[in-house]
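Why does residue order matter? Because the sequence determines the fold. Keep that principle in mind as you read this record.
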Amino acid sequence: MTNNALPEHGQPWDALEARMREMAQGDVKWRDGRTGLYIFNAGEDVARVKKAAYAMFSEENGLGPAAFPSIAQMERDVVSFGLALLNAPAGAAGAMTSGGTDSIVMAVKAARDHARAKRGLTAGLNIVAPTTVHPAFDKAGMMMDIEIRRVPVKDFLADPAAMEAAIDSNTLMIVGSAPCFPFGLIDPIEALGELAERKKVWLHVDACVGGYIAPFVRMNGVDLPPFDFAIAGVSSISGDLHKYGYASKGASTVFFRTQEMRDCMTFDAGPWPLGRMVTPTLAGTRPGGAIAAAWAVTQFLGVEGYREKQRQVTEARAKIEMGVAKLGFRVLGAPQLGIISFAHEKADALALYAKMHHRGWFTAALIDPKALHLMLSPKHNDVAHEYLADLEASLAEVLGGATDQMTARYAH
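Structure:
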């Protein structure tokens, strides 16, 4: 990488804007619904709200609640809304963070400090989790010298019996996902909650993907398995606002059953020349724009708006599910939210991924097992037929190529 010196003289915004738009020409056309990753496109109405709110508070800093009580109030409102959505009991607490990894790391930190204070655990700590949990737990383990014990899943879901066998006296946390990112499936949180209570360990539910879609899907009449604070054994939950909450990046939330648990997340650093520095999460500066945008979007949509947006997501998933089945794909598990993964017995998933990428689709693929992966947004309900048409054409090319190769091989 070469070093480019800062220009000697500044440039006008018109020129810079033109250059930035030119640089973006190679980006995926997400506004057209051509990506099943990274972007949660809820439409222009939501986009206008969050952009305006972010710009309005782009200079404010969540580090200073006394200086910016508006930001502090907006965070309290967003956290309160999330707690109610996830059936939190009286006395529950939470905070906003910068993203899912941040929320998960903070939950692990809180669980560690709680285990130190309540159980006397100081070394050799471990977390027991299914193989499908997010790598953020591995990052947390690296940062805090905690062993992550990944346990094989059963039918793509966490296996409570196998997880129980991996628990020992130094286990501080077990984990379930609602849903897991690879397959979009909700782990048996109720069984994990019973296990957590019996073994007296902390249960974290990673609902970074599902926290702001599953409750509304349930309101829309889908029979979802329980996964939130309604289960007594759940100690903490992470949920990303910038996913199916449709807020600006980066905005996430982490919730705790009690204020005492939440207090274990807090950092109290110092002394230094300015005294002590107390922050609710690892971050010092916290962008006011992200907090304001999350508040504005949640207030703009409300329950009715979220139910409609999430209906569009699940309708898109149903269309894709039906369409890929007609093409001979097998859907992995029984997804009920916005993620779907599917494999074809005769076609290599990575070859299909490449063909779809060539057609302008930026999605994902699993490697174990090999499968195509989509994380759907409301926008995809409008373009599901385009995706399926391109997938059918890509499948024909891959299978045709395989047939040609086989014919050539046996000809010799």
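The longest strand covers residues 171-177.
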